[in-house]
Amino acid sequence: MPKEGFDYIIVGAGTAGCLMANRLSANPDKRVLLIEAGGKDDYHWIHIPVGYLYCIGNPRTDWCYQTEAEAGLNGRSLRYPRGKVLGGSSSINGMIYMRGQSRDYEHWADVTGDDTWRWERVLRAFRRHENHWRLDDPKTAPEGFAELHGHRGEWRVEQQRLRWPILDAFAAACTQAGIPATGDFNAGTNEGVGYFEVNQRKGLRWNTAKAFLRPTAMGRPNFELWTGAQVRKLRLLHDDAGLRCGGVEVLTPHGVEQPWLNAGGEVILCAGAVGSPQILQLSGLGPASLLQGLGITVEQELPGVGANLQDHLQIRAVYKVQGTQTLNQRAASLLGKAKIALEYALRRSGPMSMAPSQLGAFTRSSPTKAWPDLEYHVQPLSLDAFGEPLHGFNAFTASVCNLNPTSRGSIHIQSPDATVAPAIRPNYLSTEADRLVAAESLKLTRRIVAQPALAAFRPEEYKPGPQYQTDEDLTRLAGDIATTIFHPVGTCRMGRKDDPGAVVDSRLRVRGVSGLRVADASVMPTITSGNTNSPTLMIAEKLAGWLGA
Question: What is the similarity comment for this entry (predicted)?
Answer without folding.
Answer: Belongs to the GMC oxidoreductase family.
